[in-house]
Prior knowledge:
It is a single chain. This protein is an alpha/beta fold. The chain has a single domain, classed as Alpha-Beta Complex (Amidase signature (AS) enzymes). The protein is 37% helix and 13% strand. It has 15 helices and eleven strands. It has helices at 11-19, 25-39, 51-66, 109-116, 159-166, 183-189, 223-233, 269-274, 279-294, 307-333, 339-346, 353-373, 399-402, 409-412, 442-456, and strands at 46-49, 78-82, 120-125, 172-177, 192-195, 215-220, 263-266, 298-301, 379-383, 417-424, 430-436. An eleven-stranded mixed beta sheet has the order 1-3-2-4-6-5-10-11-9-7-8, sandwiched between helices. α4 links the parallel β2 and β3. The protein is globular. The relative contact order is 0.14. The model has no long low-confidence stretch (mean pLDDT 97).
Amino acid sequence: MTAAPGPLPTIGEAARLIEIKAISPVELTELCISRIRAFDGQLNSFVTVTEERARADAKRAEAEIASGHRKGPLHGIPIGHKDIYATKGIRTTAHSKILASNVPAEDSTVVAKLAEAGTVLIGKLSTHEFAMGGPSFDLPWPPARNPWNPAHFTGGSSSGSGAAVAAGLVLGATGSDTGGSIRHPSALSGIAGVKPTYGLLSRHGIYPLSFSLDHAGPMAWTVEDCAILLQAMAGHDPKDPASVLTRIPDYRAALRSDLKGFRIGVIRHFHDQDMPGDPEMVRAIEAAVVTMRELGAEIRDVRLPHLLDFNACGLVIALSEAFSIHAETFRTRFRDYGEFFRERIAVAALISAPDYVQAMRMRRELTAKTLEAMKNVDIMVAAAMPGPAPRIEAVEKFGTFKRSTYASPFNVTGMPVATVCCGFSASGLPFGMQVIARAFDDATALGAAHAYERAAGWRAKRPKLAS
Length: 467
């Protein structure tokens, strides 16, 4: 019996090992490939594995570093891209029959920026169809499964990104977030993920779901790794009309070891009243708050508008904009979409223009009220999901219509959120916590999340995979 390949280092660890020549980009890439071969058959986290491209990238990175041209901490690091990110010459499917043969002529802006930073492209990662469809079983590729228990859901829509990072098949991944699609899989897969401020990262070349709610962002094992990825991904891009020209700070330098002087607002009413959470999850959040207090933070309760208001607002906007993108293809290829996606988006045909306009007005009001609630705190924290990952077959087609999510308020407001693991259920499935900051104060969210993550110690626990 062949021994299973060993675990991956984090991006931060691997960067240090590459710098001192304790490991090479080629060796690191081969380790990723061997782990994908050993474990992804049970996880389905990849749509396309690009072994030939990965080896070429790794050899080039190794030669550049050997010649004294190391580009930084991402040089030689294997990553994967969510399969809505355009990759030149590599199939980009959005996990849909509609785009099964789509081969882009250029990279998305974020893909190009990460390539320029020296990353190694190991493949394209599973997603819910067009970043919304859910874990459908009627698509050309099966849905991704949770490495902590493959019978369970990963969260989505960045499902393959969450699974691949948690399983240690890649060191980092890209995701997108319209109503929680980075934060949900980060929470349910037990990893770190960042939904940056709206406009901080370009969406050019990323297949859209909702023009005014979509965010691109990084996913990795640790907050430090997310900070390293975000540094390379962020920046103004005139090709994205929503992209903002702003100074990009040193995100890694903003990471903290304590929370002295921080005023942290806890949003308890989301999980206590608006949509009651699983008791185990609530205890994990309360324990995390205790840890943050022990790190020096002053803890206060804050109250935002009701979760249902955020959810109704975000859902009307997201569905309307998604329908506008897919309306023509719906008319000609309706049955080529998976059942989950086509029936969710078809509902938007009943949403009127006045409904959409009122939702956009409501968005401004909700954002103003959220900022008012934050006036006496530096950051806020909230649960990321109401409980541990459900079994994959138990995920409902219209579940997001029936129940609010703890994540959607911060797509509506556009605020930056770092999600971190904050414990495990008795059955061994992870819980996640959101750390929320004001717009373009992403560094503060990362700093606070990192301080908690280091103190809590959950990063020492990895999924046990059977080869």
